[in-house]
Design brief:
With 262 residues, this protein is mostly beta strands. It has helices at 2-20, 30-38; strands spanning 53-61, 68-78, 81-92, 95-108, 112-125, 131-143, 148-155, 172-180, 186-196, 200-211, 214-221, 224-233, 236-245, 250-259. The protein is built from 2 helices and 14 strands.
Amino acid sequence: MEAICHRLSILIITTLIILDALSGSAQVALQDILYTNAMQGFPAARCMLTTSYAHAGFRNDYGLKEMMFGDVEYDYIHQQDALLASASHYGYSGFGELNVSIGYGRRFGGKVCVALQAVYLMNHAEHYPMRQSFTIDFSAYCQISRTLGLAVDLFNPIRMKYGVIGEEVIPMIFALQANYQPNEKILFALYGEKTLPGTLDAGLEMYYHPLPNLMVSGTAALSHCGIGILIPWKQIIFSIEANWHYRVSVTTQGDVGYYFGK
């Protein structure tokens, strides 16, 4: 069922992209990549967009068919308001977790954005009962100056438990990111993420835009390092990425994003 929903969502997004493609001609800029790719874990950043945005991606961890991640996202932007919706699944048919989020975000004065999402979690495993849970995600973004931005995200700050009334608390995640973009060619993002209970990860990302139809990215973090290639074409951005996790192995990822009406 999760696979069918995922494929149907991708089909709907692809159809919308094809229908809308005839009306736009502007190129995806590094500023757009900042709010979507570089800050994918901070929904409030999408409120800085001036057009709606759709995204679909797939990742395979360590070459194992049991560790696959797929997600779709659609952000409807109307003036200062944003409706944010996404769905993702990690695992495979025999075991995994489905995550569905929907929420509202708002931009204040072109400088500050906040977003609140309701999150539905469903864990499934063969021969075991399905487990359903609910929580929230809060994020905020501030454009401090023309070149500097700061974002924060809190997942499960209310400390909800798996199964709602179960004994195991859903891990709380606190993430912080600072962005520095001196010009239209280069972008730096310094981030940190702490899972409670769990590990701490921190790192530096760089995006470089040397040619109109080419961007490259690099990541150096405590847990991994990686490189990526992004290809903007009109309103579409294609990207592929590979990361080496020091203690395990390599993950590969492919994404496509679409900026409506640019």
